[in-house]
């Protein structure tokens, strides 16, 4: 049906009557490894919106062979190569929902980790941040021994945010792809089972007339376009949604998805000089060389860093006190806030931004618990108002190489309404 919205623009609303297809979900303990490869698959999470009982079919591609009709299934693949396992969930009315997982036999996924930094470590906007990545792969070896081999296939991606909980702006086509199973088989610049998205864009970017045929291939499935492993059909995804996804892919340009991306096992990157930044998310990834006919496999590892300036209201745990807008208040004796896994080295002092129209009191930083080792302390005198902020700096006792929970403990025995805390900052050098 067609109708008009409040802005008098025409919008199309689609209604589908009758049976709603089931939702199929598939999971597995393992989807890649050396041959022979025993596999166990599970349909947990599959359901029918109308509550019908479901029957199941497990299929292996290429070949479209049914190997089980039970909710969960086992399969051993003897020959190396690239496969797709499909689960079909079928309701009593004949409605079918499907899901799939790529399987690679003959190649083992690599293992990626950060030597430095570690999750919870500090970064400073505008100042260089060092990193070192370690990779191990059963077929390729160890990056410590074959660094030249691994250098060119290792990437670091960095993202810096204000960490204010605001929703990240994502192009609608990309958002739909993340909700689907697209990234099971495709990556932006690396081959998994299907071709890289950028390679698809390079083929069709200047061919707008190819849009509808691409949409049809996604809906009905296809084979022989990019290799021996077929793309399975997606009949339950609405064509308008697929068009949005395909348009997103066609619009990709080289380098578009590589902002804040560097190549190599070690080096440094410099965050933007924006004092509002609170979080840095670093992702290390490696794509192995494959073991023909088994396709290359990629693995990634992510760490989340924090600015040296910690906003008090974002503490990992708050006991007794309350969040009042963008600071902590209603603080009585014995209340505390906890920040998880703080790096305790390379800090000489801590600065607190506080205000008090009440009793004032002491702030103590404790390691590991509310009565753990004392890292720093300062005394807060009444400042003349709850919005009269001052900054107080106290020496810090570092614990090099340690990462521990830090407790901000407030003390003034028998007293309440001690102070407000806006933020605390771990300073690299004494002020």
General form: elongated
The beta-strand count equals 30
Instruction: Report the helical percentage.
Output: 10-25%
Helix vs. strand class: mainly beta
Give the termini distance in whole angstroms. 68 Å
Strand order of the largest sheet: 4-10-9-6-7
How many alpha or pi helices? 6
Spans with pLDDT under 50 lasting ≥5 residues? Answer: 1-16
Based on CA atoms alone, the radius of gyration comes out at 27 Å
Profile the largest sheet. Answer: 5 strands, mixed
Approximately how much beta-strand content do the residues carry?
A: 35-45%
Mean of all residue-level pLDDT scores: 87
Structural notes for this entry:
The structure is a single chain. By secondary structure, this protein is mainly beta. 11% of the residues lie in helices and 41% in strands. It has six helices and 30 strands. It has helices at 147-151, 172-179, 182-185, 197-204, 211-220, 239-250; strands spanning 2-4, 10-12, 27-28, 32-33, 37-42, 55-61, 65-68, 73-77, 81-90, 96-105, 111-116, 122-123, 129-137, 141-142, 154-161, 261-263, 266-269, 279-287, 298-307, 309-311, 317-319, 322-324, 327-329, 336-343, 349-356, 361-367, 374-380, 385-395, 403-411, 420-427. A five-stranded mixed sheet has the order 4-10-9-6-7, with no helix packed on it. The protein has a five-stranded mixed sheet with strand order 12-19-18-15-16, with no helix packed on it. A hairpin with a 5-residue loop joins strand 9 and strand 10 (96-105). Helix 2 (172-179) crosses helix 6 (239-250) and helix 5 crosses helix 6. The chain starts with a strand and ends with a strand. Mean pLDDT is 87; it is low at 1-16.
């Amino acid at each position: 049906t067609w109708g008009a919205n409040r802005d008098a623009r025409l919008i199309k609303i689609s209604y589908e009557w009758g049976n709603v297809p089931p939702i199929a979900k598939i999971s597995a303990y393992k989807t890649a490894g050396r041959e022979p490869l025993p596999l166990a698959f599970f349909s947990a999470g599959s359901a029918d919106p109308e509550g019908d009982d479901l029957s199941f079919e497990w299929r292996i591609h290429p070949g479209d062979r049914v190997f089980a009709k039970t909710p969960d299934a086992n399969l051993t693949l003897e020959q190396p190569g690239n496969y797709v396992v499909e689960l079909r969930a079928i309701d009593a009315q004949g409605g079918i929902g499907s899901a799939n997982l790529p399987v690679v036999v003959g190649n083992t996924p690599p293992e990626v980790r950060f030597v430095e930094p570690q999750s919870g470590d500090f970064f400073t906007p505008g100042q260089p941040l060092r990193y070192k990545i370690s990779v191990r792969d059963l077929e390729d070896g160890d990056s410590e021994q074959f660094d030249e081999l691994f250098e060119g296939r290792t990437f670091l991606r960095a993202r810096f945010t204000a960490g204010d909980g605001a929703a990240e702006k994502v192009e609608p086509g990309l958002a739909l792809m993340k909700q689907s199973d697209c990234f099971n088989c495709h990556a932006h610049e690396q081959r998994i089972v299907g071709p890289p998205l950028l390679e698809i864009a390079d083929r069709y970017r200047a061919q707008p007339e190819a849009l509808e045929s691409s949409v049809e291939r996604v809906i009905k499935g296809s084979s022989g376009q990019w290799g021996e492993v077929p793309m399975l059909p997606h009949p339950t995804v609405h064509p308008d949604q697929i068009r949005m996804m395909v348009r997103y892919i066609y619009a990709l340009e080289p380098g578009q998805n590589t902002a804040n991306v560097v190549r190599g096992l070690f080096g440094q990157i410099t965050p933007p000089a924006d004092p509002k930044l609170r979080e840095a998310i670093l992702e290390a990834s490696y794509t192995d060389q494959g073991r023909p006919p088994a396709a290359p496999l990629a693995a990634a590892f992510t760490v989340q860093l924090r600015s040296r300036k910690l906003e008090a209201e974002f503490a990992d745990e708050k006991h007794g006190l309350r969040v009042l807008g963008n600071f902590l208040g209603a603080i009585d004796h014995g209340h505390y806030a906890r920040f998880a896994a703080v790096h305790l080295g390379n800090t000489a002092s801590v600065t607190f931004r506080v205000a008090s129209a009440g009793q004032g009191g002491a702030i103590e930083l404790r390691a590991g618990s509310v009565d753990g080792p004392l890292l720093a302390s300062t005394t807060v005198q009444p400042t003349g108002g709850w919005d009269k902020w001052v900054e107080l700096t106290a020496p810090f006792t570092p614990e090099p190489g340690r990462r521990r929970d830090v407790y901000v403990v407030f003390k003034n025995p028998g007293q309440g309404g001690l102070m407000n805390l806006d933020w605390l900052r771990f300073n690299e050098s004494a002020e």
